[in-house]
Specification:
Length: about 110
């Protein structure tokens, strides 16, 4: 048996859209033919910002990196990069899935 490695995403069977956020109907074509898929753990930083004034449960974690990560399947998602040196992050840096957080969702770290 092979262990599945990665995190959940969603796939529209009609238009082939893949996204990380849960959906009941496809935001692209409106279809309800949605299936759960596993997204690969590897990705790269598509864009990012360093947050210096957080709010809510993130207020005490500043500064932190808020990034849009592009997975190997070309799915883009907003995430927090943990264990990242805010002075070393750059667009194109390789990252990998670390864990799911109940309040944030998928969390990544430098690869």
């Amino acid at each position: 048996m092979t262990a599945i490695s990665g995190f959940h995403g969603f796939h529209c069977k009609d238009c082939d859209l893949k996204i990380a956020e849960s959906m009941f109907a496809c935001p692209s074509c409106g279809s309800d033919r949605i299936e759960t898929i596993f997204l690969k753990e590897q990705g790269k930083v598509y864009t990012f910002t360093v947050v210096h004034v957080g709010f809510g449960h993130m207020a005490g974690k500043t500064p932190y990196v808020l990034a849009i990560v592009e997975t190997e399947e070309n799915v883009k998602l907003t995430t927090v990069l943990e264990d990242a040196d805010v002075n070393q992050i750059a667009i194109g840096n390789k990252v990998k899935f670390k864990r799911n957080d109940d309040k944030i969702g998928p969390v990544f770290q430098p690869a």
